[in-house]
Amino acid sequence: MEGGTTFRFITGGIREALDRAREAAAARDVPIGGGPGTIRQYLREGLIDELHIAIAPVLLRAGEPLFEGVDMRALRYECVEFAASEKATHVVLRRPGQTDG
User: Fold this and answer.
1) Helix or strand or coil: residue 86?
2) Which of 45, 52, 66, 86 is 20 to 30 Å from the Cα of 39, by its Cα?
3) Domain 2-94: CATH architecture, name and number where available
4) Where are any strands of DSSP class E within the chain?
5) Do the strands 78-84 and 89-94 form a parallel or antiparallel pair, or are they unpaired?
6) What is the spatial distance between Cα 54 and Cα 95, in angstroms, rounded to a whole number?
7) What pLDDT does 72 receive?
8) At what angle do helices 14-25 and 36-44 cross, to 10 degrees?
9) Could you give the 3-state DSSP secondary structure of residue 23?
10) Residues 6 or more apart whose Cβ sits within 8 Å of residue 62
């Protein structure tokens, strides 16, 4: 693929996918992308150390809640960055004991 991106399909679940991504990334960060359902799976398993959220000021009549069924209090995320503008609000949540980068 142009740019050197390689896609691999994993059928063993999210833990296997994350383990393989960590191995391939060596010591670098492993970003997890996807829709709310994908992110909720990783959150429920406590596998996300840092969460970057961009909130746009628009009213949606439908959609899928990001945190539905996820006990965010139990995961103990702390807000480590907050930046607001006319177009969006950016929030970075990090689990205690994790470092930047």
Assistant:
1) coil
2) 86
3) 3-Layer(aba) Sandwich (3.40)
4) 50-55, 78-84, 89-94
5) antiparallel
6) 18
7) 92
8) 90
9) helix
10) none
Output the pLDDT for position 89: 95
Tell me how far CA of residue 63 lies from CA of 17, 35, 51, 59, in angstroms: 26, 11, 20, 10
| 65's tokens | 């809640």
- What's the distance, Cα to Cα, between the start and end of the chain in Å? 27
On whether the CB atoms of residues 95 and 50 are closer than 8 A, the answer is: yes
pLDDT in tens, the chain (101 residues): 577 777 778 889 999 999 999 998 998 999 998 889 999 999 999 999 999 999 888 877 788 888 999 999 999 999 999 999 989 999 999 998 866 65
In single-letter form, the type of residue at position 61 comes to: R
Structure token pair of residue 40: 């909720």
Distances (CA, A) of 13 to 10, 30, 97, 101: 7, 16, 26, 25
